Amino acid sequence: MTRTKDMQSAWAEKWPAPAKLNLMLRITGQRDDGYHLLQTVFQMLDLCDWIQFHPVSDSSVSLKNPITGVPEETDLTVRAAKLLQAEANCQQGVCIEVEKNLPMGGGLGGGSSDAATTLLVLNKLWNINLPVEKLMQMGLKLGADVPVFVYGFSAWAEGVGEKLDRITIPEQWVVIIKPDCHVDTKEIFSQKDLTRNSKTITIADFLTGQQQNDCTAIVRKLYQSVEQALLALSEFSEARLTGTGACVFAQFDSEESARKAYQTLKPEWQVYLSKGMNESLLSQKLALF
User: Fold this and answer.
1) pLDDT, tens digit, for every residue of 83-132?
2) Assigned CATH class of 173-277
3) β-strands 14-30, 36-55: how paired?
4) What does each C-alpha distance from 245 to 188, 216, 227 come to in angstroms?
5) pLDDT tens digits, residue range 174-217?
6) Which residues contact 253 (CB under 8 A, 6 or more apart)?
7) Is the confidence at residue 155, as pLDDT, over 90?
8) I want to staple 163 with a disulfide (CB 3.0 to 4.6 A). Which of 48, 66, 91, 159 is the partner?
9) Among candidates 18, 174, 20, which has minimal Cα distance to 101?
10) What are phi and psi of 230, to 5 degrees?
11) What is the pLDDT of the chain when averaged over all its residues?
């Protein structure tokens, strides 16, 4: 696609950092180093954080609205920008402004998506132009979910989640509940009762309905608020856990039915209405520049 906007205007843009869902999660084994071997399916959502990048006159990287008491250098967007500087020997700097809409620690990938947007957009703004494959490798240093956000498409993932193949999934409406808890992923993966020997399946198996999440039983047992959220959402459609949670979701065939569930649940829960996307809003927007 030919560029329809110049890079000067790109500095004035707000850039999406979209959420994702894990529509399935199978644990098929464990490596000698302790990492679990997975099969999972990522789908992007139209629910986003928004990031604006402000040019600066030196090579500094900073946040416009840092969180009180949290060192800036630990923020994933700052770490992503500095990693890109180091990899490309880039002397340009940036001030990063993040509008947070995605819940923290919910399994929707907010921090990872923010990091991916930072890598992809600064790669353009700083005129570095590294290939997406290189940015995905860099993203893995920041977090296991960063590469799929750099990738920008719904994906079938294997290995420890780093082997990605594009997949086309129905773009259904989704209602998401964020329970009032933070699920510790390391705790879940350390549970002795966790299933670690699920049979590997194919994409065709997934598309015909094999969509289990091997973490669900453990998370339901350990986190009562997740159990309650699953029960509340299941009144409207099949409720499932995304990743290790804490967020739970249900898919709907129509906006009307999804919106009805959303409005009913809203008084009692932190709830989001969204739509699945096979190409992320970020990927679509980057193609214009």
Assistant:
1) 999 999 999 999 999 999 999 889 999 899 999 999 999 999 999 999 99
2) alpha beta
3) antiparallel
4) 10, 9, 11
5) 999 999 999 998 899 999 999 999 999 999 999 999 999 999 99
6) 172, 173
7) yes
8) 159
9) 18
10) -60, -40
11) 94
Is 158 in contact with 39 (CB distance < 8 Å)?
A: yes
Helix (H, G, I), strand (E, B) or coil at 79: helix
What DSSP character marks residue 154?
Answer: -
Q: Which residues of 222-255 are buried (b: 16+ CB within 10 A; e: fewer)?
A: bbebbbbbbebbeebbebbbbbbbbbbbbbbeee
Q: What is the mean predicted confidence (pLDDT) over 20-27?
A: 97
Q: Tell me which architecture the domain covering 7-167 has in CATH.
A: 2-Layer Sandwich (3.30)
Residue ranges of the chain assigned to CATH 3.30.70.890: 173-277
* Catalytic residue positions, numbered: 20, 145
- For the chain, residues classed under CATH 3.30.230.10 are 7-167
How high is the pLDDT of residue 1?
40
What residues contact residue 60 under an 8 Å CB cut-off, 6+ apart?
93, 95
